[in-house]
Design brief:
Strand content: 5-15%
Family: Belongs to the GST superfamily. Tau family.
Catalytic activity: RX + glutathione = an S-substituted glutathione + a halide anion + H(+)
Domain GST N-terminal: 80-159
Bound molecules: glutathione
InterPro entries: Glutathione-S-Trfase_C-like, Glutathione-S-Trfase_C_sf, Glutathione_S-Trfase, Glutathione_S-Trfase_N, GST_C, GST_C_Tau, Omega/Tau-like, Thioredoxin-like_sf
EC number: 2.5.1.18
Distance between the termini: 62 Å
Helix content: 40-55%
Number of domains: 2
């Protein structure tokens, strides 16, 4: 067997391999100065009810029903507890909630105020102090892609798998996830924060290029989702950006998703938003745009001071 590796010097990302600090002993919030609002989120009732149906001949979205119910039973039996720290507008936190929803794993959701970070967030992610954080019993897991992989590995026997089984397919899914991070999310954020029209145009060009590339990747799949017939890892990673991409015209003047240039992605967004596990957590685009306009005005005001 011959393996050809094209590489530069190996890298070891800062912080990799460090273990999270121990979580506060439960109860987590008693006496805490700042306490994010918490809400128990379970697999949608419509999914749980379908447990009674024989599932093998059902379409994927319905098959999730038995997974959700089985996951709930498993979690209860094992005494497992999942908590998610997020905020409604975070594309990264959304990924985590979607993955848990699709797997049918119940979790408690804590809506954070990023202008006034809670003690729980600061203790849970002391190195980066960002959302999302997944708290599984007393394990703290940060960084959305790391969290998705943790969920996939830890609950491999629960609900549908998000990563493909085949190692090559897995590698490809991870490649596209990385691509979305580096070539879509990062330039989009830079475009949104750009101070000059030239900078904005440059980052917009990169963002549009990435969207085009993803349209091509989806067309080569010949399937409704990047994961194939069902949603998978890449769908979850990209879906965090759906509402932001839809709001880009209102925010930055360019339509990223449109039926002539990116027909497959437009259909994909509609298909995705219609899934049981997605409906309840996808942010409202108008609300997002409103929020982002205020945020940008504040950033500009700070820059001008
Ligand atoms: N690479 C991180 C990005 C997380 C991130 O940027 N989170 C934002 C919310 S969208 C945050 O917590 N920002 C707080 C801050 O920057 O202080 C991930 O994938 O989880």
């Amino acid at each position: 067997m011959a393996l050809l590796v094209l590489a530069s010097a190996p890298s070891n990302p800062a912080g990799f391999g460090q273990s999270a600090p121990s979580a506060p002993k439960r109860p987590l919030f008693i006496g805490a100065a700042k306490r994010p609002s918490a809400r128990l989120v379970s697999a949608p009732a419509s999914l749980r009810l379908r447990l009674v149906v024989g599932t093998s001949s059902l379409p994927p979205a319905l098959r999730l029903g038995s997974a959700a119910a089985a996951a709930r039973t498993n979690m209860e039996q094992l005494g497992d507890e999942l908590k998610v720290l997020g905020t409604w507008r975070s594309p990264f936190a959304l990924r985590v909630r979607l993955a848990l929803n699709f797997k049918g794993l119940p979790y408690e959701y804590f809506e954070e105020d990023l202008d006034n970070k809670s003690d729980l967030l600061l203790k849970s992610n002391p190195f980066i102090k960002k959302l999302p954080v997944l708290i599984h019993n007393n394990n703290l897991i940060c960084e959305s892609l790391v969290i998705l992989e943790y969920i996939e590995e830890k609950f491999s026997d629960v609900g549908p798998a998000l990563l493909p089984v085949d190692p090559y397919e897995r590698a490809m899914a991870r490649f596209w996830a990385r691509y979305i991070e580096d070539k879509l999310v990062a330039p989009w954020l830079k475009m949104f924060r750009a101070n000059t029209n030239e900078e904005k145009a440059e980052w917009m060009r990169e963002t549009v290029e990435a969207v085009k590339t993803l349209e091509g990747a989806l067309s080569r799949k010949l399937a409704p989702f990047f994961g194939g017939d069902d949603v998978g890892y890449v769908d979850v990673v990209l879906s965090g950006m759906i509402a932001w991409m839809q709001g880009t015209k209102a925010l930055c003047g360019v339509e990223l998703l449109d039926t002539t240039k990116t027909p497959l992605l437009v259909e994909w967004t509609e298909r995705f938003a219609g899934l049981e596990g997605a409906k309840e957590v996808m942010p409202d685009v108008d609300k997002l745009v409103e929020f982002a306009k205020i945020k940008r005005a504040k950033m500009m005001a700070l820059d001008n001071n």
